[in-house]
Design a protein that fits this description.
Elements (H helix, E strand, L loop, with lengths): L1 H23 L10 H31 L2
Length: 67
């Protein structure tokens, strides 16, 4: 129970920090509003998650083959 609570609190803190960064530091970034930048912003998190899950799947597959 304690471990889950610590995890949730860390996640909440990270989320709050990220939202503050987006709110206050985001407008100072001069990113042009182009279709390419929009696609990068939308698809990059998906690609990162897919790579991470594939990496985890490969590691789990190798561990299950070891005697």
């Amino acid at each position: 129970m304690q471990n889950q609570l610590v995890f949730v609190l860390k996640l909440l803190l990270l989320s709050a920090l990220l939202s503050v960064l987006i709110k206050y530091a985001g407008p100072s970034l001069s990113i042009p509003a182009t279709a390419t930048n929009a696609l990068i912003i939308v698809l990059l998190p998906i690609a990162i998650m897919a790579i991470a899950l594939l990496w985890r799947f490969q590691a789990q597959k190798q561990n299950s083959l070891k005697p």
